[in-house]
Amino acid sequence: MSFYFEIAKTQGKARAGVFHTPHGDIPTPVFAPVGTQATVKTIPPRDLHAIGATLVLANTYHLHLRPGDELVRDMGGLHSFMAWDGPILTDSGGFQVFSLAEINRIDDDGVTFRSHLDGSKRRLTPERSVAIQENLGADVIMCFDQCSNPTDRDTLVTAVRRTSAWAARCREAHPDDTRQALFGIVQGGIFEDLRAESAAFLRELDFPGYAVGGLAVGETKAEMYQTLDFTTPMLPDGKPRYLMGVGDPDDLVQAVLRGVDIFDCVTPTRLARHGAALTKDGRINMRGLTYATDRRPVDPGCTCYCCQTFTRAYLRHLVKAGEILGAYLLSIHNVHFLLDHMQAIRTAILEDRLPEYAGQFLHRYLHTG
Amino acid sequence: MSFYFEIAKTQGKARAGVFHTPHGDIPTPVFAPVGTQATVKTIPPRDLHAIGATLVLANTYHLHLRPGDELVRDMGGLHSFMAWDGPILTDSGGFQVFSLAEINRIDDDGVTFRSHLDGSKRRLTPERSVAIQENLGADVIMCFDQCSNPTDRDTLVTAVRRTSAWAARCREAHPDDTRQALFGIVQGGIFEDLRAESAAFLRELDFPGYAVGGLAVGETKAEMYQTLDFTTPMLPDGKPRYLMGVGDPDDLVQAVLRGVDIFDCVTPTRLARHGAALTKDGRINMRGLTYATDRRPVDPGCTCYCCQTFTRAYLRHLVKAGEILGAYLLSIHNVHFLLDHMQAIRTAILEDRLPEYAGQFLHRYLHTG
């Protein structure tokens, strides 16, 4: 089997495992940096390997519009195109269609929208999304789903039924997971009965992995954690569970405690481009005057190139001067920070001390206590 | 002696040598990439080493204004601040004062101007320029000079006399070249008698190196080459000769043929940020539709990370999508291209075949023939 999920150890609901893919093994829990346009912004693949990235996400919507999924296919697929030989996951395009594009019509068959780049009229259906993702050639591909406000029950009822029907069509369009594994996406917002309906339907389709979609899009953190509390037990134990779009360091450990294995988020690279750094003592804004002559690394004790080489004073100068090098160095650091955090979480599970690690990490990161 | 220039081989006027500095040996002729704000734009020092950079230039005017030369001094000087342990050269600030700032007054004592950043009123004199450069701590520092239109004889007469007087004051302010070598700058535009007057005066001050200033600022290439033809023989044989602000691949070889040893220019990194790449067949604009599915590297045969890893199709996508990674990869490539070119020039001198190399390079680069 080219895809196989192995759980090495559990502690409570948390799982330490390995997700085997055709492009390499992914120790889980794992954080996947996001390469929206076939590049994790500012970070060359050489550095992604160096900071320990295993899985990278790319966005179907963006790549379909530019440079075009057929061009990517003709250039040998995403791995070859972006020179990343590790595992890749593509989303379905649904989230961007609903958040970036100008929607013309949603119906039971799919979505008609206008490109945010050139206004051209496009249509995405479950079958088209799968076909585009097959052209892109990622290891893990996602079902086309309808993402809605997680607290708007009326809309969610329709969205869940549509997401179920679309998942069945995606499964039919992509019946064989040998080369690319198709994951289902559970919707239902913060409502337990809707999540249960969605999860039950998707389990029947026997996907090699399941995502929890529609979170981290407006609800409170408490609502997100509660939703995970009741949703992960609805998913099969032996399959990887993927919480989409979540990357705050505190959310990562909270979600692993609740049984999640895979995460992705643009946060670390987006923060970097805005001059913010993740540290064990919380997020800091490098523009602060307090860093002007600070000789310490961005995050003391960190082993990344940025922290091993440069001072906060220099990073502050780069950010203030608008230098690209600042965005690059902080991107390297922020992504490394999350990868390192996930590795520490995994080790803690293996050593039966995740609650202790979580407590200490959250205490320091959130300055509680 | 901490600074020593050794000529290993000459061919005609061209020289292959080594310029010894406290931060390392610089094989010459050499091209110095420009790190205006204490960073060669987009390129971390690790990569500068990897692509073979030996000497890096930083701009006194910019660093004086931000983050401030005293802050840089307090952080251990430029080498420590920007984490570049190789040789560094700073310019005098003169060129930027005359090109970027809003000038209030030029007089025989110095220049009063307003910062282009915050409009604050500042004054630069020969003594201040030296003091700022001493704070920055580069290996090679430059005399404060007046740069003028190279074909406007009337202005140049005054500029040459002022540059001479200012050079004497810089020499007096910095009499000891042990830790930092102070270079003189010959002015005089395209006029042989003015260059002769300037060079004769500066030779009396016995600088450890001499720059040819005021070129590549509006005159034709033919005028620049003619000016070099008569100016380099006015400079002492045993000292390094530095042609400021020149970095076109054809100009580099033409100037080495005329006896120049050191160059700097923002061109390779600036072109990169605009999506242009240097190749042995000339400059190309990566946006071109012709590259959309081009599987070749940016410059076939090139050994840099960009060319060894990525296709033109991918670079075109990055540039079109406005991705920072595109600017970084093209910067790496363009700087490597010039460093590689200079190394080939040096080898050609050592092997007594510079004219042949120059002919072949120019024929292909300029598509002549």
* Oligomeric state of this protein: homodimer
State the helicity of chain A in percent bands: 40-55%
Number of DSSP strands of chain A? 16
Question: How many domain regions of chain A?
Answer: 2
Strand content of chain A: 15-25%
Shape of chain A: globular
CATH topology of the largest domain in chain A: TIM Barrel
Which strand order spans the largest sheet of chain A, edge to edge or round the barrel? 4-14-13-12-11-10-6-5
The number of helical elements of chain A comes to 15
Q: Specify the CATH class of the largest domain in chain A.
A: Alpha Beta
At CATH level 2, the architecture of the largest domain in chain A is Alpha-Beta Barrel
End-to-end gap of chain A: 48 Å
Uncertain segments of chain A: none
How many strands, which pairing sense, and closed or not: the largest β-sheet of chain A? Answer: 8 strands, parallel
Largest interface: pair, residues per side: A-B, 37 and 37 residues
Rounded to an integer, what's the Rg of chain A over CA atoms?
A: 20 Å
- In CATH, what is the homologous superfamily of the largest domain in chain A? Queuine tRNA-ribosyltransferase-like
Mean pLDDT of chain A: 97
- Which structural class should the secondary elements of chain A be placed in? alpha/beta
